[in-house]
Amino acid sequence: MKSSHLLLLSFVFLSFTLSAPEGSVPDIEKDLVAYYSFNQCDARDESGNESHGRMYGGVSCWCGVQGEGLLLDGQTDYIEFGGRVNAAFGTTDFTISFYFKSSGHSVFEQSLFSKRELPDSVRMMDLRLNRERKLLITEVYEHTWKYYSGLSPEAATDTWVHYALVRKGTWAYTYINGILQNTSRKCSGVDISNEALLSFSNSPLIQIGKARRFKGILDELRVYERALTGEEIYNLYLKNPVEEANDDCLT
After folding, report:
1. Were both Cys, which of 94, 140, 212, 225 would link to 31 (CB 3.0–4.6 Å)?
2. CB 165 within 8 A of CB 173
3. Widest pairwise Cα distance in the chain
4. pTM, whole model, 2 decimals?
């Protein structure tokens, strides 16, 4: 089953490549504002823009989708990212892409990435995993009446998942494992500017008991100051397809 799926992915990728005009292959590093491989067991930004992350609790290393990933315990572990990466989440186009593997079996939603000041803040981005509904809650809000609706894609809960959120002008898109899942549009842009730091496993909703910290592995985080195309998202996913990930660090 895995081999047939990989064969299909390779065929689609080859079709993209052959149909693209010469010299038009996308530059996947263009406007990359922050990149974290986590291969050094820390949250250093390898893009050169110095948006280094700070780890709290007892964040440790475990095998990732490629090399090492960061293992969080679902109790006290979280990460905050400082620097230029935070300016990407405002009124302009952006893309956030990452891999995760959840191992927490809670009825509560688990906090993934958020940039949100308070539990009742309206200008914010908040991504959470609902294992019960197998849903990746995707909230991108300016006001309670101005936000991207219907963006939350279905997601597997016990295996590696690649997720990408893209905002392009008045449109927003979510992708799972390189494939477009949901699309949303507003008549005017959605301003999510705020003073909070981008964080992982640290949504303010944890403070009021509406979410829990993430238990599992985070890997290969990328943030762009532009909207990647569907083809670029797919090509990015093909660099580390989940079918090839090691599900057992001991083997």
Report:
1. 225
2. yes
3. 54
4. 0.89
Beta strands in 103-240 (DSSP E): 110-115, 124-130, 135-143, 146-147, 161-168, 171-176, 179-185, 198-200, 215-224
How is residue 197 annotated by DSSP? Answer: P
Output the pLDDT for position 245.
Answer: 87
CA atoms within 13 A on the CB side of 172: 27
CATH topology for 25-244 is Jelly Rolls (2.60.120)
Q: Helix %, strand %, coil % for the chain, to 5?
A: 15, 35, 45
Tally Cβ neighbours within 10 Å of residue 136: 26
**Residue 137: which of 65, 58, 211 has the closest Cα?**
211
**C-alpha 32: how far from its chain's center?**
14
The model's pLDDT over 24-38, given as tens digits with 9 standing for 90+, comes to: 456 899 999 999 999
